[in-house]
Write a structure and sequence with these properties.
mainly alpha; 3 helices; 79% helix; rod-shaped
């Protein structure tokens, strides 16, 4: 899009159509940057959520759960 903008504004005296093309290209460029930024944000959020979920479940508890305790008592 930057090439389109540069080409549209290249003439010494750009026409109204040249300005229109350049403005539309700038709009597309801004929309693409916004979408890329949103995708990066979503990916970073997903990584953060995944890391938090992994770290909270990665360390098993040393104490038995209530079900394990009850099973142990029944077996004795």
């Amino acid at each position: 899009m930057q090439t389109v903008i540069a080409a549209a504004m290249a003439p010494a005296d750009p026409s109204p159509k040249d300005y229109q093309v350049a403005a539309q290209a700038r709009q597309y460029l801004l929309e693409a940057k916004l979408e890329a930024s949103m995708q990066r944000s979503e990916m970073n959020q997903a990584r953060s959520d995944g890391a938090a979920a992994t770290s909270s479940t990665a360390t098993p508890s040393a104490t038995p759960s209530a079900d394990e305790s009850a099973a142990g008592e029944l077996a004795a």
